[in-house]
Write a structure and sequence with these properties.
The complex is a heterodimer of chains A (about 475) and B (about 500). Chain A has about 475 residues and is of the alpha/beta class. Chain A is about 40% helix and about 15% strand. Chain B is an alpha+beta fold. In chain B, helix 13 runs antiparallel to helix 14. Classes of the chains: A alpha/beta (about 475), B alpha+beta (about 500).
């Protein structure tokens, strides 16, 4: 295996043994970026000089015989909706094109404390609105497996960067599948932690009750290592849960004997590409052979997931995005005579089409006369979906599903059909509505050599169970 | 036709916390614009609010004082509207699940204390009878910033105030007239200041009031169409604005016209209300539960603890003053009109157990002096210890009451203790009988005409002679004593 393809836990061993320097790793990363970035376009900003400087100081540390932390000196790409103090946080929007954050997100502070090296900010759908990274003001990201296809979204830049070896690790954010679906499309590992496991402080909010930051990595071990760093209670986020964080690497046992895994029948009906279904079934078979208890279960309210999600998420988004008004920071339209014109023009010129669509949807469902019929009904449906999972987890330890009905689709194929685009999130959305953790791991390829993703879901704070099953499957699928 | 007026008041009071409702910024008033701000209260991308526990505590305390039910499940909500002083373009407030509901206050025959200065406004305006005004709800919310319209083509924004904790107290629409509205506000202020949850300073904006008013023919059950009146900057202007608005509405109805539902602004200069916006233009705030904050679910134990922190309120304290100190209704009312004043009184009484005398000194001597020097009771150079000392000196016969009043003045000038002033200026009473007798005999010798007048039966001549002796002693003699000595000496002639 080439250096550029190694996961973080192997790089760490080489660093400790002084077989490679941190500067070599960072240089190699930027070499790959030089080679591929023109085609992939995974990044919005790059921090070459800073990261090399940081690498140098870590090399000094190693030279002096100091011990380094497990992810110290490891390159990481950050989705451009997470704030790094003194750097641009654009959310891939014209309205924040030149916005420089005055503070660090809590996850950024934790990454800094653990010595990770920021390579740059990765591309995304504007404000995380999308499933293809085509809704970026800075242009789409291309799938490294097939440049004519999308990398998925909204964390498409992060997933593509890891898949193309333009970084070793990356952070994404997941509101309805935005980490897991691009991880599946790009053949990498993406985890959406339990709601409240990772602080949202410093993540530019899309839908506050659904958003979670999570790791995107080359394998399950790296994913556990990165979650170790970013997880934990944060007094700055009232929705973060005050609960001790275990060492997730302890859960990496290649053993599934006796673990009860549910297969929801509602996830295997029409609409799934045969190639996807075949690969998932293959993985289920492997688990059965390893003596896991596979059981069919039912999540009866699955069909309401998309509708519920687009009510709850857009309602919250419409308020969350109200602050981008051209008054204090961000894009301000120059041709305005009155306050109302200033608001209208700045937002009309600053937001992309999908952002406007979701702001309007969210505003509508909260409006007087519609609130009960949409927002309140949506909240009730959300409770029903959550209860589906509660009941299921009384019987099983984890649930296994495909990530997406299809593999990566072509750029431009769905952008004109928002509804079709929304429907591609059908298998990932429920986890956000229920607040439960979910992982996407690679599960073979289609005939067109496109990666297929498999999802494992567990009850809240069940990340260890997820890691165990994912790790075991990863070993068998190798 | 006779009309009834129906008034409901929405009062915002700033809670006395050191930091803002959702961040650590200072709440200090009058600082350099935009010096008390951070990414959180400026609504920067990615920030999250964290509730200030002290603000919740003060709100719960207020709720108890206003006899409200404290909710076991309260939730914040986003109130959405665009305005440059609101950085997130939504205000974090409470809507369907407020912190407190269903309370009341008693407008009893207590006084209406005005602002803390000048003190003459303490003087009670005792009302006949009492009335209960119910409180619909009280909830927590954050304040907005302040727009400064300085230029013709631009405005500036000061965000120092943005995020300061406010308690909104909404009365039921059952206040009957503008005077009652003023009384309600005065009592609310008295209670909240007593609890030390707010300083209720209308000039600094720590108390603001909006009013809803409608009129209807007397005896009619159905409510008339209401208007909302804003922009009053004192309790007095609330009364004046409501009086104007009531008369305006009645005049419209008398002319057979309709009152239109609208928001009106009180114009202090011209003393009228002007239309600001109509119901049709009124905003849809699209409230929904704030997903960034978890619901407030205070534990029973915590709530009980705060309930116990609610100190004795003015009404109860006044009653106790009357009962245990045997003060008049009026005196007790003035003394309890302000917590520091009542505390002052009780501190003195603790050491000098003549409550009526203490009350007289405070009400007639001390308050007058403080008033003329524009000082509050807390700023008084005559501390409770000094007043105790002064009263004790009089009680022990070391100085006369008249001298005592002079010493009070000197304490204000020099801030020295009464005992040291007495000592320095040699003001102790002449207690030596020989000394006094010498002066009495001197006065008799020097005023033969007066003496003969007295002998002829002019009783008033004695008073003149007492005055002469007092002048010689510079007031340091006991007048009763002098009177007695004079009579004895005159008998000998």
């Amino acid at each position: 295996m080439k250096i550029r393809e190694l996961p973080a836990h192997q790089i760490h061993k080489l660093l400790v043994k002084k077989e490679i320097s941190c500067q070599e790793i960072v240089s190699e990363t930027f070499k790959v970026i030089d080679e591929k970035e023109k085609e992939v376009h995974a990044y919005i900003s790059l921090y070459q000089e800073k990261s090399l400087r940081q690498a140098k100081s870590i090399d000094e540390k190693i030279k002096n015989g100091e011990t380094i932390l497990p992810l110290e000196g490891i390159p990481i790409g950050i989705k451009d909706n997470i704030c790094i103090c003194g750097e641009k946080t654009t959310c891939a929007s014209k309205i924040l094109e030149n916005f420089i954050s005055p503070y660090d997100a809590t996850v950024i502070r934790r990454l800094k404390e653990n010595g990770l090296i920021f390579i740059g900010k990765t591309n995304m759908d504007e404000f995380a609105f999308g499933s293809s990274t085509e809704n970026s003001y800075f242009g789409p990201t291309h799938n490294p497996w097939d440049l004519e296809r999308v990398p998925g979204g909204s964390s498409g830049g992060s997933a593509a960067a890891v898949a193309a070896n333009e970084t070793i690790l990356a952070l994404g954010s997941d509101t309805g599948g935005s980490i897991r679906q691009p991880a599946a499309f790009c053949g990498v590992v993406g985890l959406k932690p339990t709601y409240g496991r990772v602080s949202r402080f410093g993540l530019v909010a899309f839908a506050s009750s659904l958003d979670q930051i999570g790791p995107i990595a080359k394998d399950v071990t790296d994913s556990a290592l990165l979650l170790n760093v970013i997880a934990g209670y944060d007094p700055l986020d009232s929705t973060s849960v005050n609960k001790p964080t275990p060492d997730f690497t302890h859960a990496l046992i290649p053993e599934v004997k006796g673990i009860k895994i549910g297969i929801p029948k509602e996830y295997f009906i029409s609409g799934i590409e045969p190639e996807v279904g075949k690969n998932i079934k293959g993985a289920i078979k492997l688990l059965e052979e390893a003596k896991a208890d596979i059981e069919e279960i039912s999540l009866p309210h699955t069909e309401y997931g998309i509708a519920t999600y687009y009510i709850v998420a857009t309602a919250e988004a419409s308020a969350n995005l109200a602050r981008f008004d051209g008054i204090r920071y961000g894009y301000r339209s120059k041709n305005s005579k009155t306050l109302t014109e200033l608001y209208e023009n700045s937002r009309a010129e600053g937001f992309g089409a999908e952002s406007k669509r979701r702001i309007m949807l969210g505003t509508y469902v909260l409006s007087a006369g519609y609130y009960d019929a949409y927002y309140l009904k949506g909240q009730r449906a959300r409770t029903l979906i959550k209860e589906d999972f509660d009941r299921a987890f009384e019987k099983v330890d984890a649930i296994l599903t495909p990530i997406s009905p299809s593999t990566a689709f072509k750029i431009g194929e769905r952008i004109k059909d928002p509804l079709k685009m929304y429907l591609s999130d059908i298998f990932t959305i429920s986890a956000n509505l229920a607040g439960i953790p979910g992982i996407s791991i690679p599960c073979g390829f289609s005939q067109q050599k496109l990666p297929v993703g498999l999802q494992i879901l567990a009850p809240v704070f069940g990340e260890e169970k997820i890691f165990q099953i994912a790790f075991a499957l990863e070993q068998k699928l190798k | 036709m006779k009309y009834e007026t129906v008034i409901g008041l929405e009062v915002h009071v700033q809670l006395l916390t050191d930091s803002k409702l959702f961040c650590n910024c200072s709440t200090k008033f009058g600082e350099e614009p935009n010096s008390q701000v951070c990414p959180i209260c400026l609504g920067m991308p990615g920030v999250l609010p964290v509730i200030n526990e002290k603000a919740v505590r003060l709100a719960v305390k207020s709720a108890f004082a206003l006899n409200c039910k404290v909710s076991k499940f309260a939730r914040f909500a986003r109130k959405n509207y665009f305005y440059p002083d609101l950085p997130k373009n939504y205000q974090i407030s409470q809507f369907e699940e407020p912190l407190a509901t269903d309370g009341y206050i008693n407008l009893h025959p207590h006084l209406s204390p005005g602002a803390s200065l000048p003190l003459r406004e303490y003087i009670p305006r005792i009302k006949e009878g009492g009335r209960k005004i119910r409180i619909k709800r009280a909830h927590l919310e954050e304040d907005a910033g302040k727009l400064l319209h300085e230029g013709e083509t631009y405005s500036l924004i000061d965000f120092n105030r943005c995020g300061i904790p406010l308690l909104e107290i909404v009365s039921q629409p059952e206040i009957e007239n503008p005077q009652e509205a003023e009384d309600y506000l005065n009592l609310l202020k008295l209670i909240l200041k007593y609890l030390e949850v707010s300083d209720c300073n209308m000039e600094e904006g720590s108390l603001r009031c909006d009013a809803n008013l409608s009129v209807r023919p007397e005896g009619k059950k159905e409510m008339g169409i209401k208007t909302e009146v804003k922009n009053m900057n004192s309790f007095k202007s609330v009364r004046k604005a409501l009086t104007y608005e009531r008369d305006r509405q009645i005049e419209l109805l008398e002319k057979g016209e309709r009152v239109s539902q609208e928001t009106r602004l009180w114009d202090e200069k011209s003393q009228i209300t002007l239309s600001m916006r109509s119901k049709e233009e009124s905003q849809d705030y699209r409230y929904f539960p704030e997903p960034d904050l978890i619901p407030l679910t205070p534990k029973e134990e915590w709530i009980r603890k705060i309930e116990k922190e609610v100190t004795e309120l003015p009404e109860a304290r006044k009653k106790r003053f009357i009962e245990s100190y045997h003060l008049s209704d009026y005196d007790a009312a003035v003394l309890t009109s302000q917590k520091p004043l009542a505390d002052y009184f009780e501190e003195v009484v603790k050491q000098f157990r003549k409550p009526k005398l203490v009350s007289n000194w405070i009400l007639t001597e001390l308050l007058g002096r403080l008033n003329s020097q524009h000082l509050t009771i807390s700023q008084s150079p005559l501390t409770p210890t000094y007043l105790t000392e002064l009263l004790q000196l009089i009680e022990d016969g070391k100085i006369s009451g008249k001298i005592g009043k002079g010493i009070l003045l000197k304490v204000f000038q020099t801030e020295k203790s009464p005992a040291s002033i007495v000592k320095e200026e040699g003001l102790t009473q002449i207690s030596s009988q020989t000394e006094l007798l010498r002066l009495v005999q001197e006065a008799i010798r020097e005023n033969p005409k007066t003496v003969s007048d007295y002998k002829k039966g002019k009783e008033r001549a004695l008073g003149f002679l007492v005055g002469m002796v007092m002048r010689k002693t510079k007031g340091r003699a006991n007048p009763v004593n002098v009177n007695k000595l004079l009579q004895e000496e005159l008998k000998k002639i």
